[in-house]
Amino acid sequence: MKIIFLGTSHGVQAADRYCQSMLIETEQGSYIIDAGAPVMDCLIRLSYDLKKIKGVFISHLHSDHTDGLLGLISLANWYYKEMKFDVFMPEQGGIDGVGAYLSAVFKNSPNYPNDRIHMHLVEEGVIYENNGMKITAFPTGHMEHYQRPAYGYLLEAEGKRLYISGDLNGARIDYPEFLNEEPVDGFVVECAHFPAEALVEKLRSCKAKFVMPVHVWTLDKYDTIKSHAEELPFGLAYPKDGDCFEI
Predict the structure, then answer these.
(1) What does DSSP assign to residue 18?
(2) CA distances, 49 to each of 3, 32, 70 (Å)
(3) Is the dihedral of CA 136, 202, 65, 79 positive or negative?
(4) Which residue of 13, 59, 82, 175 is surrounded by the most CB atoms within 10 Å?
């Protein structure tokens, strides 16, 4: 299982970082987690085989996790017709909004929806199991103040387990407790909504083999995390846009 970081920034893109998006690659298919970056642009510049994309999974409906989604779906709908994938969104309003946008843009030519792009509503639990990949959604309290859902995702394929936190509740850093009880090969965790020292303390009991902070703001939090690296029971990496890691 490989992770290609298309975007690693926090809520606002920077000169050298797009907003958050990751491409998870396996032998049987590839999966996009969040689409804050201009995903299709990134894939084309990588000369990526677009037929490999099997699913897109959005953690929550904030623009820094969704702004690249419409471009991806739009181009797949009318131009890259070899693409066939599922899209998972946490709110029906997002699904309806995609449909309304495409209807407005294309005026039903080409038609949408079609038999190549399927939209699904995320609920807690196993939401995808196909092509050797199993994906489980775990709720977070990132948007509970607004009574809106947000999720992190556990991806299991090729004997590997990867957890991607999505955005968390800043008061309690609410990634799921199973990460303190059973190992995962990789853990991608955000660090924008709480102090870096609080994340370090929370991670001391984490069973991950490798932890990768993304969505980091302010950037001096990297220095804080690095200063504690030798105390923590796992390896650390600090992904930048374009980096690829194999777990």
Answers:
(1) P
(2) 15, 13, 19
(3) negative
(4) 59
Please report the sign of the dihedral spanned by the C-alpha atoms of residue 25, residue 213, residue 87, residue 18.
negative
Burial class (CB in 10 A: 0-12, 13-18, 19+), 147: exposed
Q: Which two tokens stand for residue 100?
A: 């309304």
Question: In the chain, what are the domains?
Answer: 2-246 (3.60.15.10)
Report the side by side order of strands in the sheet with 186-191: 125-130, 133-139, 151-157, 160-164, 186-191, 210-216, 235-236
Q: What are phi and psi of 243, to 5 degrees?
A: -70, 150
pTM: 0.97
Q: Which pLDDT tens digit goes with each residue over 129-188?
A: 999 999 999 999 999 999 999 999 999 999 999 999 999 999 999 999 999 999 999 999
Rounded to whole angstroms, the Cα distance separating 150 from 147 reads 10
Q: 150, 140 in Cβ contact below 8 A?
A: yes
Q: Name the average pLDDT for the chain.
A: 97
Q: 69: which 2 tokens?
A: 């989604």
Classify 120 as helix, strand or coil: strand
Residue 154's DSSP bridge partners are: 136, 163
Give the contacts of 83 (CB within 8 A, at least 6 positions apart).
50, 51, 53, 76, 116, 117
Q: Are 112 and 99 in contact (CB under 8 A)?
A: yes
